[in-house]
Amino acid sequence: MRHEYDRQEASAATKLTYLIVGGGIGAILALLFAPKSGVELRGDIADATRKGLEKGRETAAHLQERAGEYYEVSREKAQELYTTASEKASELSEKAKTAAANAANPFTAAIEAGKDAYTAEKRKNESKAIAEGRASYPIVDDPEKV
């Protein structure tokens, strides 16, 4: 969608350029065919040329400003894409390193997993033994009832 907008902007700039050039040519032709003296004609041609140059400078400045805006937006988007791609590559690299380490020595990974499972089971059983070993006394609110 943004690409279509850019194309329309470029098309508008091209149309504006053609309009200015065509207007300048038309003004010069009108001056050449107007019944005026040589001094007046040269003065009118100079005025038309000066106005055309000023309009061309204004258009060029406007186009330069728009190009600068497009450059800045494009640069920011490229930076965002680079950052995102760099982060993803880093994540994938870490995952690949982990997978390679696990695949390179599966016995070590299996032993570590076994140790972790043993430790977890031992802790679970110890907490059960501690809870079962406690004496369970009835809780009495009124000592005379006992």
Structure commentary:
It is a single chain. With 146 residues, the chain is an all-alpha fold. The chain has a domain at 2-93. 87% of the residues lie in helices and 0% in strands. The chain is built from three helices and no strands. The chain has helices at 2-33, 38-104, 106-133. α1 (2-33) runs antiparallel to α2. The radius of gyration is 42 Å and the shape is rod-shaped.
Global outline: rod-shaped
| Number of helical regions | 3
Helix content: over 70%
Structural class comes to mainly alpha
Helix and strand succession? HHH
In percent terms, what proportion of residues is strand? under 5%
Q: Give the termini separation.
A: 85 Å
Radius of gyration: 42 Å
Q: Which consecutive residue ranges, at least 5 long each, have pLDDT under 50?
A: none
Mean of all residue-level pLDDT scores: 76
- Biggest sheet features: none
Number of strands: 0
What's this model, at a glance?
The protein has a domain at 2-93. The chain is 87% helix and 0% strand. It has 3 helices and no strands.
